[in-house]
Amino acid sequence: MRSSDLRPDSRSAVIAGLGTCLPVGAVGNADLARILDTDDAWIRSRTGIASRRQVSDDVSMTDLACAAGVNALDSAGVSAVGGVVLATSTPDRPCPPAAPEVAHRLGLGQVPAFDVSAVCSGFVYGLATACGLLAARVADSVLVVAAETYSRIVDPADRATAVLFGDGAGAVVLRRGEVAEPGALLAFDLGSDGADAELIRVPGVREQPDGERWFAMAGRKVYLRAVERMAGSALRVMKDCSWAPGSVDVFVPHQANLRIVDAVAGRLGLPPGRAVSALAEVGNTAAASIPLALADALSSRVLTPGARTVLTAFGGGLTWASAALIWPQLTPVSTEV
Ligand code: UT7
User: Fold this and answer.
1) If you take atom 21 of ligand 1, which residue's CA is the nearest one?
2) Number of folded domains in the chain?
3) Is residue 335 assigned to a domain?
4) How many Å apart are CA 239 and CA 232, to the nearest integer?
5) In terms of residue numbers, what domain contains 268?
6) Could you say which of 178, 209, 235 is where a domain stops?
7) Domain assignment present for 136
8) Please, are residues 37 and 246 in contact by the beta-carbon 8 Å criterion?
9) Is 120 a catalytic residue?
10) Is there a contact between 253 and 310 (Cβ–Cβ < 8 Å)?
11) pLDDT tens digits for 170-198?
């Protein structure tokens, strides 16, 4: 081995563009209260959600993914990337994965493309996976998309879940770059605990051959684990970066519940206003929630270039994931479908 082989690697993956897409259709709390035994006051006080978006019958998860992907390419000012990683837990079909179709529809050619399934942690898992593709020199740039249509798997008659989720998509372009550049992904923390796999699930065909297969969640237990796991994961990436929690400018947690956002921010000792809350109008959009929250925070100028930024997700599996970066100069592109 030569001494140069031992030098720390200064290469990194850099976020170069951000795109989002939301369905135009909005379902407000009052709309749900007309068909379910619930009310606006309960939903707002327990979750912070006022409304959520829902795709029309002719819009698929793949359509949302393509729109967010096009917008991310536009934001990055590129028309080609060397790979596509798509995070979703609501695929339009079990097989094949949607990423190759996204690559095809975006005119990206015969690039490597595959789906990642880590439920609400999928976007950050996707970022880490794409970093691996760049490090392995499989590609020089990768489109990471997170797209979800929970309206297709949530039982509309179940008040415990129907009020929580919304549809949407977000995407980033990652390119190879240097650790010192703004936008470079500086640290990751990924984990899972399959012992709690039953807490968030959709039954399989063999488990429920004749029944309806709706999404189910043990809300209270998930809540407690979400707070604990997200706080632990965020603290690990901060430690990796030698960032004291008080020195983090913007914390972008998975947007499941405003109470969870506040509880995790409290555990991290973050001053008020540092944790992004962007779920009031879109609900919990699962894997798409972090890129949608990034776009929301940029439009409200909560997030600005140079900010020490931590992304932290939690979801079914159970899975959790965090990433740290200095936010780069970029203009997000957002559309509705
Ligand atoms: O994205 C993946 C990760 N997901 C999460 O992190 C979600 C974690 N969980 C949560 O956000 C919260 O647990 C929920 C929002 C799902 C529920 O809030 P909670 O404060 O934990 O309520 P709970 O489940 O303990 O239910 C309290 C009461 C129950 O009634 P009783 O048993 O006390 O009479 C529920 O039946 O609220 C009732 N309830 C509702 N009432 C009106 C449950 N859903 C509703 C509803 N409207 N929509």
Assistant:
1) 220
2) 2
3) no
4) 11
5) 187-329
6) 178
7) yes
8) no
9) yes
10) no
11) 999 999 999 999 999 999 999 999 999 99
